[in-house]
Batch of 2 targets.
Target 1
Amino acid sequence: MRVLLIEDEPNLGQAVREHVAAEGHAVDWFQRLDEAEDALGAVDYELILLDLHLPDGRGLDLLRTLRRRGDATPVIILTARDQISDRIEGLNAGADDYLVKPFDLDELAARVAAVARRYAGNPNPLFRAGAVEVDRANRQVRVAGREVDLTAREWAVLEQLLRRPRAVVSKDRLEDALYAFGAEVASNAVEVYVSRLRKKLGPDLIRTLRGVGYRLEV
């Protein structure tokens, strides 16, 4: 999943970016609203992590602008403001969730996963296809009852396919989920991770449609 992080506290921003990236997501981190708005114009993000107080403005103003123009990208607010009225204002502006600083990074990861499932139209974290069983909430995969370990980027590819189990997912979308701005993208990266998933989960789970993309066979 491609995530936009807007946070001006360097230590917190670095910690959040590293933790969310370790969960298999590509994270673009900006410390100013103007930089974040430029990124939003260039990339289709699947989640925004938004601080409310930034050097060049208020996060809520950006959120309201997104909602007014019909942008339904899920937003989780990250803020030190812990008053109930502040939470209500954020939720009424269109936020999907709200975390008060300081927060536990594992809780943030769980909320990111929950929001992603809701917006994928599949709140059920369990997926089964033949001998393959995936628990998205706990990031566990079993094949014929045997647990299989996946790397963060293997998870990122599988997560994209799980979000659209009967649809074709393009190579470009998979690359967007794998790599943040500035990362070097190998031309065959997607093919490599799909190949690794087939070796671990079975050769028939992921189908390649030449020139179009990939699809889970469910």
Note: The mean pLDDT is 87.
Target 2
Amino acid sequence: MKTEKLFKTPLTPAQISNSELNLREFKEGRTELASSPRRIVFELTNRCNFQCIMCGREAVNFKTKDLPVDVVKACEPFYGQTEEVTLHGWGEGTLHPKTAEVLEYLNSFPMLRKYFVTNGSTMPRIMGPIFAHHVDLVAVSLDGATPETNNGIRKGGDFNREVASIRLLMEEKAKRGANYPYVNLVFTAMARNIHELPKMVELARELGLPEVKVVYLTIFNEALAAESLVDRQQLVMEHFGKAMELAEKYGINLKLPEIQGAGEAGLMKHKTCPFPWRDLYIGSDGYVRPCQSSADKLLHIGGYGSFEAVWNSEPMQKMRSTVNDPEAMPAGCANCYHSSCANWNLSTSFVQLGKKFAPDWMADKGKAAAAVETLKAAVE
């Protein structure tokens, strides 16, 4: 199943054994797990230097927070079994003042895959650490194949600057003869830019990138209603088809979401979700959430003495028992818009008007500081 998969890189015997056990426990519906998370997601920061028109952060009151590096280090007991650490969330993770330190620390664990998503603006500063600390995957968000389209969507972005940075990254990779990082483009498809998707494939070819990933726009406010692709299947299929032809011609991996109404999930509220088994998502405010796209807060790490305790805590076990139950699943799951698990047959996956789609950001510095001290003591 697509939602169960992670990027493939060589794994240690311990990682392979853990992943096989984790998948068995997921398929058996276990709530208390003997396996460790296959992936840990750290929202290093919720700060961002862009104001993209489609981003939900523009529709809520954000209180900016940076995740303490010691939280990353407190997950150390997992790193011998975990496959991947992803740096991703509601902000531009590379704005964290200690991003390089985090990457250096994670690189001390052999075969632990490192992945981050970026708007590309900080590439000149982060390029050195990418190679020094063996970042395996870098996803760069671009929402147009021309400056006019991209910059009109990604306010604060500069298409020419970001493309130049990607080109430098790929040139440096070639100069070093390195087989990392795997770099792809991520494109948010909406009414105003979908006609440029074929050009995005052309751009990937020009830059020497192996992949373009497409996600649908989900709207959070009325101002973007005209940009939604809900019930516009003919338009979507026209441009998806053109892009697919080019991708096949050039050998580009084009990842497309399902066409509305053609998915196998029927009327399910979301596809079968493996995240509470596979992933541990830690927000920049110290709250564990089901995933990046859920507003639901399961627990604060300050209430637990270790991440092993967090992993099999009562809230996590409850999440595993309810996430795929249409009658009992949390509100955020019932309104799922996550690019991997959303049921794109449903209009609610495209439109979140009136829904709670982002977490409440509270000023709880004291709670977070206390949590860090507790977790540091547990590791030491």
Note: The chain has a mean pLDDT of 93.
